[in-house]
Amino acid sequence: MEQLLSEIMILRDGQTPPAGITTPPRQARWYDTFSYIANPERFCSQNLEKYGPIFNTGVFGSKTIFVGSARANQMVLNGDSKYTEIALPDTTMDMFGEYSLFQRPALHRERKNALAPGLTGEILAGYRPRINTTIIDGLSKWTNTGKISLYPAVEKICFEVLVPLLLGVSLDDTNPKSFEGLPLANSNQLKSLYKTYFDGFYGLSKWKSPLTSYGRGLKARAKLLEFMRAVIAKRRLSQGEINPKADFLSMMLVNQQQNPDGIFSDALIENQCLLQLWASHYEISALVSSLIYQLGRFPQILDKLRSEQAKVVGELSNSKTFSSEQLKQMVFLEAVIKETLRINPPSSTANRRLTQSVVLDGILYAKGCTIIAEPRLAHIMPEHFHQPELFEAERFLPPRNEGRMYEFIPFGGGVHACLGAQMAMTITKIFANHLIYLFDWQLTGEASFVQFPLKKIKNNYQIILQKR
């Protein structure tokens, strides 16, 4: 019995659980979805305090078990094809589309392995000089002194970084020719479509009507796919041989040329262009703006980052390009970014549905339930992080070495771990290095955050900038 209670036990249909097994506490409530959407952090912290890190909810209209403990997270994030399947709301699955990584589980590993090289490793390292240049150019347009709206200013630069890296085109609103052959006239139209599309992810009704966020989201998705088809057509008509290491789209197009009957169909390429730009843009913009806010709260941390930068890089110039090796040596910067992700995880991990009942640590997770490994639980548990209410980047460094696997899950884990995690960290590190070299800044009070579906500082929050 002890062996069964300490390891995952998968129950056959009709099999009786061992004696002494319990079920997660708390009864699902009709208003759980509204409480969770209104403030996921408050929902998680209040239930953690009352029921512990594993509890039942009625979020999104079904029995949903939230988990935060490391062993339960590991169980959830590694169950695909064995005892779990993806279980996002129907509206969300429709927005992701048939060719997303969440659809067709049998193809997931093949698709992810094929896509990963365009966002990691050697190809990602090759993006670094362009990331540096674009961020320097974007920051040069920030005012020398005075207030700026933090999130919109960061978002603009992140958009200018990501579009060329992912699509291989530049969308320059000052140059109408950059939009020739495309169904949109400026980048604001593209961003507006993405906002409408994202609003449809958690629509409460699947009514395909312009009166519902779901209906508007589907219409925006269709227009975004039309835009991506036009971009792809434009790239194919461009002169010269396509370099598979130049950008994410080029990698997919070359693979398609080399293996026309392989995984990279036109539909997959279009859908991945849409999804990668959406996910990368929103999550990286949210992370960078949250990092800037946290550094404004703790000037002593900013001083330590500048000392680390000086030690690693030495004499700087405004055009400095940070090498991969230099970024790797900035261990305190990485710890600060991780602590920002711990305090402000952008979103929850993907929902799973149990296809078999399982038992772990004496708790029964019943077949048919939805289960979520929730970073807003895992990241505030004292069992995982000492004094989790404090912002302490040192927790990720020796000798503390907190944030072990399945305790720190800002990018999920298992086979559905975020494909763009390495790119997000690289862009954030480069952005932070240029920012702390060029500017000082002060906060204008406590920031308010949009809480759901992705946590980010509200657009109207401002900081006071001063060029160094």
Structural topology:
Blueprint lengths: L1 H5 L2 E2 L21 H7 L1 H12 L2 E4 L6 E4 L2 H8 L6 E3 L3 H7 L8 H11 L5 H20 L4 E5 H18 L19 H13 L13 H25 L10 H11 L7 H32 L1 H15 L10 H6 L1 H13 L8 E3 L3 E3 L2 E3 L4 E4 L1 H4 L42 H18 E5 L5 E2 L5 E2 L4 E6 L1
Parallel strand pairs: 3-9
Antiparallel strand pairs: 1-7, 2-3, 4-6, 5-13, 6-9, 7-8, 10-13, 11-12
Helix pairs in contact: 2-3, 7-8, 7-17, 8-12, 9-10, 10-12, 12-15, 12-17
Name the CATH homologous superfamily.
Answer: Cytochrome P450
| Spatial order of strands in the largest sheet | 2-3-9-6-4
**What is the CATH architecture descriptor?**
Orthogonal Bundle
User: Mind describing the biggest β-sheet?
Assistant: 5 strands, mixed
Secondary structure category? alpha+beta
Under CATH at level 1, the class stands as Mainly Alpha
Helix content: 40-55%
Strand count:
13
Q: Domain count, please report it.
A: 1
Instruction: Give the CA-based shape.
Output: globular
Order of helices and strands: HEHHEEHEHHHEHHHHHHHHEEEEHHEEEE
Q: What percent strand?
A: 5-15%
Poorly predicted segments: 1-5
Mean pLDDT rating: 91
Q: How widely separated are the two ends?
A: 65 Å
**How big is the Rg?**
23 Å
Number of helices: 17
CATH topology category name = Cytochrome p450
